[in-house]
Amino acid sequence: MTSSPSPRPPRPNPAFRRLRGQRSPSEFAAAVRRAAREIGERVSCDARYIGRVEAGEIRCPNYAYERVFLHMFPDHTLADLGFAPRSAVRGRGARATAPAPPTYDTQETYETHASYDEHTYDDQNHEESDVRRRAFMTGGTATVAAVSLGPFGLLSDDPATAADRPVHRAGSSEASALEDAVRSIRVLDDRHGADGLYRRAAAPLRTAYSLLDAGATRQKVTDRLYAGAGELAISVGWLAHDSGRFDDARSHYAEALATSRMCGDAALEAHAFCNTAFLARDAGRPREAVRAAQAAQRAARPLGSHRLLSLLALREAGGWAGLADRAGCERALVRAQAFFGRGSSDADPEWMTFFGEAELEGLEAQCWSTLGDWTRAARHALRATQLLDPHFTRNTALFTAELADDLARGGHPDEAAAAGLRVLALLEEVQSSRIRTMLAGTARVLLPHRRATGVSAFLDRHTSLPRTHVRTASATVPAPAKASGRS
């Protein structure tokens, strides 16, 4: 839903920026989501929304956000938060000076981030969110993809037909739609996992590269298209990766890496190498994982993001663990902790919204698990589940599955069964072959302990789980027993 922007230039909102303080936009957005849950509101606030508020693009929040912000800052009014009076941005007076409504964001819940006629869209958004959720839960992949990714990718049509459509020279609207498609994929994956999304998400990727071939109106648009196409290739690659299609994932990551080299985008190069390292570890190539993670760190150093360097050190640690090099793994983990301790910054990439203390703990748990230190692994996995933002439903299931497996292998079958049952409940919302594979491994470990408290109930429920075909990179490479969070 887009329209011509208002002729009135936005004025930055320094008051709101001061309230954010030292927190990054992503961290502040997470705090907004937590505050919303405290009062029963539903908002999908992200770093982009916080940036738009601070830039003055959102002159007055919709009613849901207003309630959340006033809950967070009870001694403030909307004016204290730097917003304009609602009467100034809606109604006849406002429409006389700004005849066209501003651009609406395309997030998973299609929240009304704009200030024009908010109440009407709020009611519609909650209904659309429920429709999207039901479509996904009933296996309506085409439906959910068309609704969630439609602004960019012709997804209401057959993907092959969409790919054959002629593409004209792109402008800023096409670049924005491409960026929104990437965000939509990430939000859906955070909540539901990759299975069912992958094939539909490939259509906007083909369209993105068709736009690059057709050229753009300005160099700035060209740069955005290259970055957007590269990030979309990584997102589609991750969907393939998480659903066990390792060869497809490797191809998409290589495509993103080539794109980064063509346009000289160090941030995109670091992201592509990051995911390549992740895939190599899962595919049983730990030495390649170490080298790709080190290449990612070389690309990332000039970017100024300590959080990114922390994640890349964790990717390297995972590779060393796969090589059974405990000393190398520990050195990389120490670097990861040190970089993480330096805090977040505005230089942190947008795609790293998933990476917080919970992810740090979860990835360290996987390293100790790979090294066979089940007690230490379980301690970190438990910490990860306790710290994780509930917004990341998929990762909640992932790290709980990690915890169940570590407990089972560490000789605590009753606790492992309890954690496994929690994962089974989450699989009603999450579709991820990787998590199912992890849980199947845990079930095999628990088979000899059927008489332990809760184990029989877990095994029976696991047996009744609908069967899905888990794809692998080749016949000789098993689906990964461990997994880590999305990138």
Automatic annotation (TrEMBL):
Residues 1-13 have a biased composition (Pro residues). It comes from the Bacteria. Residues 1-24 are annotated as: Disordered. This is Tetratricopeptide repeat protein. It comes from Streptomyces macrolidinus.
